[in-house]
User: Fold Dynein regulatory complex protein 10 from Ophiophagus hannah.
Amino acid sequence: MMSELVSTSYELVDSSRPKKSIRAPLRILDPGRSKLSTVETKRIISVLDETIFKIELVSVFSYIIENLDEFTAVLGPDLTGAFREHLRLSNILEFMLSHPEEENILYIGSGKGTFFGLVDSDGYLTLQVQGLKSSVRNILRLLYTNTVACQALREAAYTRDPSVHKLIFCLSKQRGFLFEQLLTTPLEEKEKCRFLNEVFQRDKKNTETAANLEDELTAAVQNRDEEISKKNAVIKDLKMHLHNLAKFSESQIQRTRAEAEKQHKMEVRTSQGKCTKLQQELQQLRAQFNALKKYKVEMEIENWVQKYDMEMIEKQDLAQLREKYTQLDKEYCQIVEERRVKQEQKDKAEKELAILARAATLIQAVWKGYLVRSMLRSKRKKKGKGRKSMSRK
Assistant:
């Protein structure tokens, strides 16, 4: 049961460690195996795991004892009684240490409230300490048989003292380092040392190369500074030359400005004469334009008059055509009316003729029927007379 608790508590020490994603040349630094192969190494790791596990449990005893009523249901009667016994022994030991004169206990040396040693003449203090240790062992033994209680104590880890957290962290780190060392064989350790020595030699060589490169860089920077100084001197000479050139060009500019002003005055006079001439030409052009404009207006008026005359003639012709159209329309209406009357008379005559033809046909039929009946009657009479004469004979 104890091994199962320890394994469930610390199986992540190996499996949860982040795997190093390193390049192939550095794989030699990793252990050659992932699991321990010998019984001795497994025992070493199991002892260290058990120690860490016990420290985790013992570090929360004080919190459990202070809140024992809350954990009674989880701990059970055996563990609850063991914790109460542990509390009793702790109180006795604390009383003995706080009243040493009553228990014949002497302190050997002290500094700033911290005692360095004790002299127990009766041996009673030693018995109490042994009893307290036995109580701790008994509680741990009972916890190993109660998984639920162990889990409850582990969940109270937030109540630990920071120094205990630091101790557990250091032990876990030491456990990982020791586990990695136990996975490495002497041959692998030798190969690792050789590889690290080669890396150190390469690093040393690279350092020397970097130093040489720094020297070369310093020399290059110095050469660059010298070139910059030379260029600065050239720039200074050019500035002096430009200053002298500016002084020389100033007088040249004044002469050029005077000549430009003189030429400007001459051009102004010439332009004034040209402006006068252009104004005269402009007046002539305006007079020609006005005459041309007047002629153009007269031509437009004449065109409008001609256009008006033509439109009036067209309107007169249109009136005559309308009058002629009205007359023709009347004649057409009369012709249509006459045709309609004639058609009505014709239709009426045809209807009367049809009635007469039907009446004549009916009369003929009646007459023919009458003739047929008359002939039949005469034939019947003749037959009757013949029969009578034959009967008489």
